[in-house]
Specification:
By secondary structure, the chain is mainly alpha-helical. It contains 4 helices and no strands. It is elongated and about 95 Å long.
Length: about 120
Amino acid sequence: MTQDPVIIPDRSHFRTAMILAIVADALQILVFPLFIEGAVSPVDDLLDLGIGAVLAYLLGWHWEFLPSFFAKLVPGVDLVPFWTLSVANVYRKSRKLPVTIEATHEEPARTEPRSS
């Protein structure tokens, strides 16, 4: 099974996505009393929907965003910075370069026939 390389269109898009992910996670951690309800909080849901949409716009769709979104619906899980982790994982995958191993085929040294 081959995986297609993850391509980030522009470095500034990644920086913007990382800053937004950090801000969203910080809001959900530091302003905890407003978002304590988890799946019941409409403010938390709107924040997660908006961040998910902006990250998908900036970096393209990546499967790492889906678990981050669903994990945010569980009460108390907002203490884990899933958006930041997912953006960092997308960046990590984009930095992987395919490694090509070239085999060197050495021919055995030719020896001249000995004359007696």
